[in-house]
Every structure is written in C-alpha cells, then in structure tokens.
Amino acid sequence: CLINLNNMSSTTSGKTTDDVGSVVALRVALQTLAERCEKLQSRLDVVEKENVTIKSHCTCQTANNKSSEVNVQELSSKKQQLVEYLKIVTNENRTLWTTLSTLDNPAVQSNDKIKPKNSLAIIDNYLKYNDVDFKMNSNCIMDTDDDLISLQYSSDDESWPMLLSELNAYKEKLTLAKHLLADQNDLIFNVTSRFNLLVEGKSY
C-alpha cells in the first residue's frame, strides 16, 4: 500500500508540474499577443493620422484645382473681351485715320488745319533742321477740338466712355503741345533774328 501511495503522489506532482508549465507558457503567449496588439494599435493610429492628412491635402488640392479652373475661365473670358475690344479700337482707329485723311480735300481744309503729309514734313524738319532761318508756323498745328467732337460712336459698349476720356486727354495733350510749339517757334525765331543781326554786324 505504501508503494502505491508513493506512486500516486509522484504521478500527481508530475501532473501539477506539467500544468504549471502549461499555464506559464500560456501566460507568455498571451503577453506576447498583447504586446503585438499594442504595437499594431499604435501603428494603426499612425496610419489613421496619415490618412487624415492625405485626405485633407487631397481636399485642398481639389479646391485649388477648382479655383485654378475658375481663374483660367475668368482669364479666358477677359482675354476674349480684350480681343473684341482690340478689334473695335482697330476699326475706330481706321475710321479716325480715314477722317483725318479727308483733310487732303481742299473743301474741308481751313486756315488752322494742315494736310497730314505737310504735318509730317514739319515734324521731320523740326527734329533734324539745320537751317537757322527755319521757322515753323504754329497755325499749321491741327486743332483737334472739332475733329474729336465730330467723331460719332454708335457702339453701346461700356468701354467707350473710358476710350472717350482717353481721347479727350490726348486732345488736351495735343492742345498743350500746340501752345508749347508756338512758344518754342517764337523763341527760335527771336534767336534766329538776333543771330542774323550779330552775323550782319560782324560782316560790317
């Protein structure tokens, strides 16, 4: 009987040792799985943040693309308007040049107007004159008041008031240039006269 009890005791202790070893191994496995889960969770959080950032960037980029498309459409529209405006201005310039060319007709020419070719000749002579007796007639400078008033604009384009304003400013500049040229003409004439007197005095 004693032998049997000892055998039973050794058998029981062996099973207990095996059970403890199994429990320890199971705990180690569970701990390892828990650590892996924590690492995977951390990685998942990082990936989720990256996804949010990418989505935000894509949303901004999409908005920027839409904004760029709108800007391109607006610029294309403005370009088309400028092209149309350029055509209108070109046609008006052609009409203006035709109107100015009618000054070649003696019936419409007055004392204070001059033919365009004569005007160009006067300007050319003024820029490169060498003759001390050169005298420019200020009455040859064309008065633009009547010509600008006589121009009729039938277009309903809103840009015409701006164009008319620019033409009026150009008219004022021409008027000022006319007076300045007249004053300069008088000065040249006076200097020339004095120079001639000095030359004549030395010759005697």
From TrEMBL:
This is Uncharacterized protein. Keywords: Coiled coil. The keyword Coiled coil applies. Residues 23-50 form a coiled coil.
